[in-house]
Design a protein that fits this description.
alpha/beta; 2 domains; about 450 residues; eight-stranded mixed β-sheet; five-stranded parallel β-sheet
């Protein structure tokens, strides 16, 4: 079956109930607005279409067709945002990826199920940091599949032997032998060398609808060929991607850990660094001066079945992880948070629990602000390439209606967020109720 036809069939077959309401009133709720360290006094919130129209202490007239949700003093917060996910490859294991039975149909089915589960955990927006995301995003936007808003990067862009070079040992260079690798055929990555190829790969992703571009600028722990310390892409190659992205009004984010790779990326004009667990104060100060974002994660600990070589490569990253959050906070770097689960689908259920790991370095209000308002600010770097015009990460009049009605006060007890099935009574995305256990 042709892929386009399969996608149409999939979109028809997979439909998840969403309740469309012309107007919804949340009565008697306390609001975390995304910025304040305190909740509001009890208020009423009116949503019309997909926008917050009014927030008032006074009663709101209940017109015909308006759905009223009694908050009973519960907390209304913005939808959660994860700025480093891999919705497709986070739904697949490495065994799935290497299986000769892998098909585009299986990929989309697993990713569709994973996207619905992510939305039901309260994540109404995500930035996809690399992979064949465009068919899934189209299905979600159409309403055929349930899932969060997606800011897509498309295929990662990597040099030969870089972090995005996923070739098996028997797969040879496309440039010399003319055959694209399996990972390239599945739109996971572009292996691009030289200014011209980097320009083409960047423009291909933009053509497909990328809201930002993901480049591999340094070694990685899960890639076979590159030691962690190597710097990837020359300044000229990286500048080519930045220029092409800026011509489309958007930006480049890079995978990088070390000061050398990050400093080169900043010189090239990169706006966001992913990871950075090995950075030093000098580089963090440079990021602060240049206004460059640091998108950090709390990477998972070693697992029993992990390859010994990967365990060895991860040691310095896990050690650096214990220092970087506090250092970045001290130097007032723009910080964002994401999970970066990849090829371990069982980890996805822990997405909310990973929020609690931030309590080593931040107070509850700081964390809640980071995973709503601050992450939304990073999403808006996409400018006119942002796929969803409007304001997110905040509860204010005129903002988009991505909302969660929480049973309790997360500013006092952040662990409430770790149990979304029990504690998220209502989840609203784009003005639509995707979960409502309030009884109203």
């Amino acid at each position: 079956m042709p892929f386009s036809l399969f996608l149409a069939v999939l979109c028809t077959r997979l439909s998840f109930a969403q309740t469309d309401s012309a107007s919804v009133i949340f009565e008697n709720v306390r609001v975390f607005d995304g910025k304040s360290p305190r909740l509001s006094e009890p208020v009423n919130v009116l949503v019309k279409g997909n926008v917050i129209k009014a927030i008032t202490a006074f009663p709101i007239e209940n017109q015909d067709g308006t759905q009223v949700i009694r908050g009973d003093g519960k907390t209304l917060i913005p939808g959660l945002i994860d700025v480093h996910v891999h919705l497709v490859f986070g739904s697949l294991s490495m065994q799935d990826m290497l299986s000769p039975d892998l098909t585009e149909q299986l990929i989309l089915e697993k990713a569709a199920a994973g996207s619905e589960q992510m939305l039901m955990r309260g994540f109404t927006s995500v930035r996809d940091a690399g992979g064949p995301i465009f068919p899934l995003k189209a299905a979600i936007d159409k309403g055929s599949v349930s899932g969060p808003r997606i800011w897509p990067s498309g295929a990662t862009i990597s040099q030969t032997g870089g972090h995005g070079d996923f070739r098996t040992p028997e797969e040879r260079s496309r440039r010399f032998f003319g055959l694209p690798s399996r990972a390239e055929l599945y739109h996971a990555t572009f292996i691009a060398d030289g200014r011209d190829e980097v320009l083409t790969a960047t423009r291909e992703n933009l053509r497909y609808g990328a809201s930002q571009i993901k480049l591999m600028a340094g070694g990685g722990t899960s890639s076979a060929y590159d030691p962690l310390d190597v710097t990837q892409y020359t300044l000229d190659e990286m500048r080519a991607a930045v220029q092409a992205a800026e011509d489309w009004g958007t930006y480049v984010m890079v995978h990088a850990y070390t000061p050398r790779s990050v400093q080169r990326a900043i010189e090239a004009g990169v706006k966001c660094i992913e990871h950075g667990q090995l950075l030093d104060p000098k580089t963090l100060k440079l990021m602060r001066r240049k206004g460059v974002w640091l998108s950090l994660q709390n990477l998972v600990a070693d697992t029993p079945n992990m390859d010994p070589l990967r365990r060895e490569k991860r040691k310095p990253v896990l050690e650096g992880q214990e220092r970087i959050w506090d250092m970045a906070k001290k130097h007032r770097v723009k910080l964002a948070w994401g999970t970066d689960f990849l090829f371990e689908p069982e980890l996805n259920e822990q997405q909310n629990r990973y929020i609690l790991r931030l309590q080593q370095w931040f107070g509850n209000a700081e964390i809640l602000k980071m995973i709503t308002h601050d992450n939304a600010e990073l999403l808006q770097l996409s400018g006119l390439r942002s796929p969803y015009p409007g304001k997110l990460g905040t509860i204010e009049e005129g903002a988009l209606a991505d909302l969660i009605l929480v049973n309790g006060d997360p500013l006092v007890d952040l662990s409430i967020l770790a149990e979304p099935e029990d504690n998220f009574h209502v989840i609203m995305k784009d003005g639509k109720l995707v979960k409502n256990k309030s009884g109203n």
